[in-house]
Amino acid sequence: MSKKFFSKKKVIFPEIFLKFFLKKGNFKKAETNFLNLFKILFDKTNLGQYSVLSKLYKILYINFELRKIKKFRSSHIIIVPVKQNRRHFLIFKYLFDAIKHDKRNVSTVTKLVTEILKCIQNKESEVIKLKTLTKDLAFKNRSNVHYRWY
Description:
Blueprint: H1 13-21, H2 27-45, H3 49-59, E1 64-71, E2 74-81, H4 84-101, H5 108-120, H6 126-140
Antiparallel strand pairs: 1-2
């Protein structure tokens, strides 16, 4: 029997995550923050970076996205299917949006650690709230799918 892969492209998940850390092109600072993040996560959960990221991917996996389309002076929210690269982007976008809304005076690494730990342990976190909010909006606006082709 031949194995079926999830996708034909080889996506290196940690590299995508590292690109979100980049600020003003300072790659060394972003890389040290990235390594510190996974060192702290390993101390707290005894999981490596690939296992942590795969758990995050399974928890925050989303098949669709909501977009706003204007049709005859009225706007509609529409459900649009998402490809794999966009799915990765949305997962990290949700994570970093939750960090931006966190008003504590601590580093971004500690904010990320707390959010990731809450997601992995299935506690109440901002990222899971955003995911459930998009699911609820998609369920409410599923009747607008026919506007997708306009």
